[in-house]
Specification:
The protein has 3 helices and 2 strands. The protein is mainly alpha-helical. The chain has a two-stranded parallel sheet. It is elongated. The mean pLDDT is 87.
């Protein structure tokens, strides 16, 4: 379910390029700040979003999920 929710959020963000930047790298945050836009990242709590499949890490990473 997490991937479907992320896809919905990303679609919503992509329809508003004048307001938001999906930040996948630090440079994206700087670019958003310079353009006076909000940089967005996603964070998932716990391991349940992986559905027991470590291969999901790269999928979630490509969708903009970051963990600090």
């Amino acid at each position: 379910m997490a991937v479907q929710n992320l896809a919905s959020y990303i679609t919503w963000l992509e329809k508003r390029p004048g307001q938001y930047v999906l930040a996948k790298r630090a440079d994206d945050v700087l670019r958003a700040k310079q353009a006076e836009k909000m940089a967005i990242t996603f964070d998932l709590e716990g391991m349940s979003a992986l559905n027991g499949d470590a291969g999901m890490v790269s999928t979630l990473l490509s969708l903009g999920v970051r963990q600090c």
